[in-house]
Design a protein that fits this description.
This protein is α/β, with parallel strands linked by helices and 271 residues long. The protein has a single domain, classed as Metallo-dependent phosphatases (Purple Acid Phosphatase, chain A, domain 2). Helix content is 25%, strand content 27%. It contains seven helices and 13 strands. Strands 1, 2, 3, 10, 11, 12 and 13 form a seven-stranded mixed β-sheet that branches. A six-stranded mixed β-sheet has the order 4-5-6-7-9-8, covered by helices on one side. It is globular and about 50 Å long. The chain binds fe (ii) ion (FE2) (2 copies). The site of one fe (ii) ion has 6 residues, from loops.
Length: 271
């Protein structure tokens, strides 16, 4: 099966970057299922019905989240009726769920959203949470497993890879909004530390640069606004999983503004 993982979609510019090319990317790369990180789709913060439905209409099958999952209250009700998940390791009592089981090409596949420790507020241990979840999935006979690991630090992302290499088909990092060039396959686990954002590239992680510059030069902290203008980018990773659920191939697709999408990075081997 061929999975497409799209990185953090930031605001309208990010949604537009996805909307104008997803149908074609899905067809050209024979995508069976498309996962997109949606924590920033609604004006940079959270998920609304309108912005989620826009992306579902464009060809996204499942929206994942992160530390901004709860920024818009309406997402709580939305999670009951739409394919939207949030990090698995939010403490018990949190709305929604962290695992989505999809029927893809005659196989059951589990897409898991997980969140790292660093800088993420109140969250349970992601390493313990994923090991427990994998045990349950194994008992249910589910072999095809892919994870959106929403996480700040590359060390933590690397540690999750070492814990899970050979046990899941794909781990795609999100949250930093900056794509990394470490795409690899480790004992059958396709991995990248961060996919990178969809949205305005020429500002600050998809946000208008005025506020971050003010914050970092004066210490006056106010809320960020998504960038409305500037050069935009689309970034996604294709993971091909074999019948055993292991990664047979993975590569990155990138596109700028109205330009054609292209394969920007092939996996660099691994171990
Ligand atoms: Fe984000
Ligand atoms: Fe985030």
């Amino acid at each position: 099966m061929r999975l497409l993982f799209i990185g953090d979609i930031v605001g309208k510019a990010g949604r537009d970057a996805v909307k104008i090319r997803l149908e074609r990317v899905r067809a050209e790369h024979k995508i069976d299922f498309c996962v997109a990180n949606g924590e920033n789709i609604a004006h940079g913060f959270g998920i609304t019905a309108k912005t989620a439905c826009e992306l579902f209409s464009a060809g996204v099958d499942l929206l994942t989240g992160g530390n901004h999952s709860w920024d818009k209250k309406e997402v709580i009700a939305l999670m009951e009726s739409k394919p939207i998940i949030r990090p698995l390791n939010f403490p018990s009592g949190a709305a929604g769920k962290g695992i989505w089981i999809a029927r893809i090409g005659g196989q059951n596949a589990a897409i898991i959203n997980l969140m790292g420790f660093h800088n993420m507020g109140v969250i349970d241990n992601p390493f313990r949470a994923i090991l427990t979840a994998l045990e349950t999935l194994k008992n249910d006979g589910i072999k095809h497993i892919a994870i959106d690991f929403h996480c700040e630090t590359t060390a933590e992302k690397n540690a999750l890879l070492k814990l899970l290499e050979g046990k899941v088909g794909a781990i795609a990092g999100t949250h930093t909004h900056v794509g990394t060039d470490d795409l690899l396959i480790a004992r059958g686990t396709g991995y990248v530390s961060d996919i990178g954002l969809c949205g305005v590239l020429s500002e600050v992680i998809g946000m208008d640069s005025a506020e971050p510059i003010r914050r970092y030069t004066t210490g006056m902290k106010q809320s960020f606004e998504p960038a409305g203008k500037g050069r935009s980018i689309f970034q996604a990773i294709v993971f091909e999983l074999n019948d055993d659920g292991l990664c047979a191939d993975c590569y990155k697709i990138k596109a700028f503004d109205d330009g054609e999408s292209f394969i920007s990075l092939r996996h660099g081997g691994g171990w």
